[in-house]
Structure of L-fucose:H+ symporter permease:
Amino acid sequence: MKNQNTAPEKSLSAPFVYPNMKIAFILLITCFAAWGVAANMTDPLVKVFSKIFTMSTFESALVQFAYYGAYFCLAIPAAFINARYSYKAGVLTGLGLAILGALAFYPASVSMTYGFFLAALFILAAGLSILETSANPFVMTMGPEGSAARRLNLAQAFNPVGTNIGVFLAATLILPNLNTASAEERASMAPEMLLSIRADELNSVMTPYVGMAFVLMIIWVLIYFMRIPKSENKVNVDEVQTIDFMATLGRLLARKQYRWGVVAQFFNVAAQTCTWTFTIQYVQETLGGTEASASDYLQYSLIIFLISRFVMTWLMGFFRPAVLLSILALLGTALCLYAVMVPDISGVWAIVSISACLSLMFPTIYSIALDGLGSDTKFGSAGLVMAILGGAVMPLVQGATIDEFGAIISYVVPAVCFLVVAAYGMFSVKNTTV
């Protein structure tokens, strides 16, 4: 009689190690969608807070610094949680912290303080950092290594579903409720009137985040009761007791494929965040109109991103991921430069089309960099999540560029970021089999 505790053989044709991993995979997909909602509901807040608090683009870009800075700070603690306990424990911890952050938007709206909102965003993103650090490698370990990149791309394909929901929520619940008064008009208002307007606007910001908190609670409960085979979820005590962080770090940095993968991920996330964060500003500077009407183009971008994720996953069945990464990164640079040189409706559609290039990048860089890491994968995953710091730093650079030269010229910043990603893609074509 076959031992039921023996793990089935991992064949390249089998998408999952265990049959009931399909249920776990489906539940994890909801997590990929959840952090997509949070990230892209946050992108328009740069413009929103700039108007509500009458501040510069650089100051309002601190929204992204707080959000992606939290990813940088919590990635290593997440790796220790995964190593000491399990990927499931990491997912639950991340969801729990994200729930607290989303709920913190209520007291932030009551206080009407920009710093309180930044703190709430930091807590929310801290939870999502732990969630993402855990969920990505969790998906990769659900089946054979040979199909890990394609399986991760499939899971990540549902992230744009969340991003579209996030932008839709911002476009319907936040942006239309902004008062049309300009900065000059706000400056001349009586303090009581200004406070009343600001309270209404911040209440609109708070509502979708608190609603998201309750959705995350449901996901937390479902994953808590999710059954994972003990052989996949059990911690090797001897391995935990002998964790040598510095030795692990040394092995990771010794691998060019991983080391440069972290750099590429930094600039990939930077390009993505810059492109989406300032789409509204580019459209308004080019075509005019309100924030709500300009946000339509951000929605178009994310629809393209969603469709392209599935298309790219299909193309990976025919082309090496590294080849596709190189081509799309170079195309991203070309589209950014076209938007800078031709600031009209075609330039706007160039900005929108960049999302097709972005669709492939995060999971592909992630899987290439982690390929062959073995027991170092959990900490390697943390390093790649820390690279999301690019989304905190480069929007500040682009924000300062907008304050000085305008939104059109500022798209030189993501153009440079794409070039770094293209270099990593070409390096991977020559030096890896992925």
